[in-house]
Design goal:
Layout lengths: L5 H14 L2 H11 L6 E5 L5 H7 L7 E6 L2 H11 L4 E6 L15 E5 L7 H14 L6 E15 L5 H12 L13 H11 L2 E7 L2 E3 L4 H15 L7 H13 L5 E13 L1
Parallel strand pairs: 1-2, 1-4, 2-3, 4-5
Antiparallel strand pairs: 5-8, 6-8, 7-8
Length: 266
Amino acid sequence: MSGFSIDWLDLREAADRRARDNSLRAQAMQWLAGDETPVAVDLGAGTGSTLRALTASNPQALIWRLVDNDTALLDEAVRRHGETHRIEPCKADLSALASLPLQGARLVTASALFDLVSEHFLATLAAELKDQNQQHSIGLYAALNYDGTTQWTPQHPLDNTVLAAFNQDQRTDKGFGPALGPDSGAVLQRLFTEAGFRVYLASSPWTLDGADQAMVAELITGIASAVADHPDIHPSTLEDWVQFRQSNAASGTCVVGHTDVLALPG
């Protein structure tokens, strides 16, 4: 499961890279270094953004098992990195967690994924990684989980209403059951702590300005599409919000909250 275009993934990657917490990223790489031939299993891998984020400053040799249900994205990841990294592309339905290729992994990674899944999915994943730790130590690095906060400048009277409607949409089924949306970071912390992991959290907000105008424009369009049918928002009012936001995309700012999570065996 990915459901995202190559263009959108490329558009957001610079903001994602800036947002990631550097300390947790370094800890994740240090954890991978604990194996002679470490395997990283990246869920919802897309074109390989997590690979690029973790290996940009450390070209450590490791095996990347990239998992996605979109063949086009996996093909693009192989095209970009097949000659420079050891890659195992795996086409799989992420919602069928029991069949995911997690065996032998040192680290399971995911970026901007776990706010789309259900609590049941994460509970099952935590239990699976707990069981695997009986044979081989395995951790989890989950970056860029949306936390439900968005702050715009300049402000618009509809900002809070749009945000509330968007957060409601974020909790609808995205293919994994009722999505956690803004609760994903807290649920990850609770479930993996209960499973015996040491869990570290860090804030990783998008901080967007005029340099990110193209991404902001797409973000505005995406938010408007998600809330278009909400009963509390009249179409004409929403259109006014969209026009205001787009007219300020080059000069305003947007901060979208995310949380990075690292869970290591206790």
